[in-house]
Amino acid sequence: MNGISKQIHERMKKIEHLGIAVHNLETSNMLFEKLLGVSHYKIEEVASEGVRTSFFKSGPNKIELLEATDSESPIAKFLEKKGEGIHHVAFAVEDLEAEIARLTKEGFTVLNKTPKKGADNKLVAFLHPKSTNGVLIELCQEASSPPVEWGME
Fold it and tell me: Where in the numbering of this chain does the VOC domain appear (predicted)?
């Protein structure tokens, strides 16, 4: 592994999950339960983002289904424009603030320069698709302990 590849590997630990925008979470949960042969392990609302999510594990991988709870939310706008489908690819990082600074310096457009509370006990930031070949990239770092108001199930 060359120096650059090793640095990237250390910063972007793994694909944390794939986010899929859906019109109806219950219907989609049933579909993915049939597809994967497992039930979702969590349903959670992130009121600040106008979204309700559910998570599935498939081997070492996770899938996040996202349903809009607010017609003005980013998920609602995505569904209106593109319909159901892959919304984002999320990468796990050790130090989200350091990655935001590094990627900003590298010329990527970071949509939120300050980490936000996300679903599944994560702090998150997003990279604009115009700077990542059309793919919305989420960077996520495990939060130390989730506050009660995060609405964990």
Answer: 14-142
- Asked if residue 93 has pLDDT above 80, the reply is yes
At residue 144 the predicted structure's pLDDT band, cuts being 50, 70 and 90, is confident
SS3 letters across the chain:
CCHHHHHHHHHCCEEEEEEEEECCHHHHHHHHHHHHCCCCCEEEEEHHHCEEEEEEEECCEEEEEEEECCCCCHHHHHHHHHCCEEEEEEEECCCHHHHHHHHHHCCCCECCCCCEECCCCEEEEEECHHHCCCCCEEEEEECCCCCHHHCCC
The pLDDT, as a whole number, for residue 13 is 82
